[in-house]
């Protein structure tokens, strides 16, 4: 079976590293049912600290194709990706295209494959934040409509697909990010992270709604007023808005360059709390048992909120931010969420069945 895996953003590189390892183990165990994987990197994240470092430190197979799309408006970026991915699929004629999550790269690859009648497998299917203003929500919904094989992180996601009448085959496999955390967290914690001696909160901000200049200004000011110390790996989009609009983060928000996955795991593991608008970091905080405050009105990872490990603070009303930081605790009886850390093996075994769908 010939498989094209399309990635473009930081979390997808981590997921690809985990699944590529599982595919290699699958091929060794079942040589008669081998999966030949080629990776397509769209270049959605093109900053070296958000791209190259992940391929290096996680030993991800080098991309067979690097499309170099770069940034742009959603329509322009997705359109350029669609055209470029369509050309790769036309040349390679894969049996299936695999996509992760909810980025513009995800949607463009799914659309390109569908137009060329190539089967699509979607990892992280069935997630919903119920906020249609988020581009990610629209991307994941449309990708689920296209996919023939849908890998769900939990039963809730599978039930969502059934309720929506999604026609592809859904399989509950767990979350490949849980696999990555299980494998890489012990390695990360043996490595030196960012040099931080005092108690700190990890902060990340990168969502489109939160990096609108006035929204970002309000968030930064509210964070300063809490009196807490934050370590803030600054996403390039966020850095550009801060600089262009003269938003000063001050000493309380210790701004650093984006860091690699292993460094980030170590940084989170040593934090007292996490404040983020990232979906992936909400889960990593959970698996590392660090309380999280999410700067969004809703989340697709709703179970982290229901069990009391994650608190939503709507950026439109930041009056609760200070109290949320004070009150944040990780529940001692928090249950395992999103699988047992062996999702990638299940996905690798299931991928070969795509030819029968």
Q: Round the mean pLDDT to the nearest integer and report it.
A: 92
Helical run tally: 14
Tell me the CATH topology of the largest domain. Answer: Rossmann fold
Describe the sheet with the most strands.
Answer: 7 strands, parallel
Helix-strand makeup class:
alpha/beta
CATH architecture group name of the largest domain: 3-Layer(aba) Sandwich
Strand residue percentage: 15-25%
Q: What would you give as the CATH superfamily of the largest domain?
A: Glycogen Phosphorylase B
What is the total tally of β strands?
A: 13
> Looking at the structure, what is the overall shape?
globular
User: How do the SSEs run, as a string of H and E?
Assistant: EHEHEHEHEHEHEHEHEHEHEHEHEHH
Radius of gyration: 20 Å
Sequence of strands across the biggest β-sheet = 3-2-1-4-5-6-7
Number of domains: 2
Q: What is the CATH first-level class name of the largest domain?
A: Alpha Beta
Amount of helix:
40-55%
Low-confidence stretches: none
How would you describe the overall organization of this protein?
The structure is a single chain. The chain is α/β, with parallel strands linked by helices and 357 residues long. The chain folds into two domains: 2-175 and 339-356, Rossmann fold; 184-327, Rossmann fold, CATH 3.40.50. 44% of the residues lie in helices and 15% in strands. It has helices spanning 10-29, 52-57, 74-92, 104-115, 135-146, 155-164, 176-190, 213-226, 236-244, 261-269, 279-287, 302-306, 321-327, 343-351, and strands at 2-7, 36-41, 65-66, 96-100, 119-123, 149-152, 169-172, 201-204, 230-233, 253-256, 273-276, 292-294, 310-312. Strands 3-2-1-4-5-6-7 form a seven-stranded parallel β-sheet, with helices on both faces. α11 links the parallel β11 (273-276) and β12 (292-294). α1 packs across α14, α3 packs across α4 (104-115) and α7 (176-190) packs across α10. The longest helix has 20 residues, at 10-29.
């Amino acid at each position: 079976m010939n498989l094209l895996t399309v990635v473009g953003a930081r979390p997808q590189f981590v997921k690809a590293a985990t699944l590529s390892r599982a595919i290699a183990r699958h091929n060794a165990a079942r040589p008669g049912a081998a999966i030949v994987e080629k990776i397509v990197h769209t270049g959605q994240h093109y900053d070296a600290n958000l791209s190259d470092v992940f391929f290096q430190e996680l030993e991800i197979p080098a991309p067979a194709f690097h499309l170099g799309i770069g940034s742009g408006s959603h329509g322009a970026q997705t359109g350029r990706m669609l055209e470029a991915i369509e050309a790769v699929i036309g040349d390679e004629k894969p049996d299936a295209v695999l996509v992760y999550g909810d980025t513009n790269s995800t949607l463009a690859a799914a659309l390109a494959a569908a137009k060329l009648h190539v089967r699509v497998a979607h990892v992280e299917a069935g997630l919903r934040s119920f906020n249609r203003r988020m581009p990610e929500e629209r991307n994941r919904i449309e990708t689920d409509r296209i996919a023939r094989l849908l890998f769900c992180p939990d039963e809730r996601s599978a039930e969502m697909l059934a309720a929506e009448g999604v026609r592809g085959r859904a399989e509950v496999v767990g979350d490949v990010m849980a696999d990555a955390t299980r494998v890489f967290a012990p390695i990360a914690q043996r490595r030196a992270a960012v040099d931080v001696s005092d108690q700190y909160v990890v902060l990340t901000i990168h969502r489109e709604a939160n990096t609108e200049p006035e929204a970002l200004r309000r968030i930064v000011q509210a964070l300063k007023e809490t009196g807490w110390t934050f370590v803030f790996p600054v996403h390039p989009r966020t850095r550009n808005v801060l600089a262009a609009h003269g938003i000063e983060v001050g000493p309380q928000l210790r701004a650093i360059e984006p860091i690699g996955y292993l460094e980030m795991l170590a940084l989170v593991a040593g934090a007292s709390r996490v404040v983020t608008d990232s979906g992936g970091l909400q889960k990593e905080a959970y698996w590392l048992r660090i309380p999280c405050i999410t700067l969004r009105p809703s989340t697709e990872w709703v179970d982290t909120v229901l069990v009391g490990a994650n608190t939503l603070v709507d950026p439109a009303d930041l009056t609760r931010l200070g109290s949320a930081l004070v009150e944040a605790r990780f529940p001692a009886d928090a249950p395992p969420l999103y699988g047992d850390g062996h999702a990638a093996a299940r996905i690798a075994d299931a991928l070969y069945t795509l030819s029968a769908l």
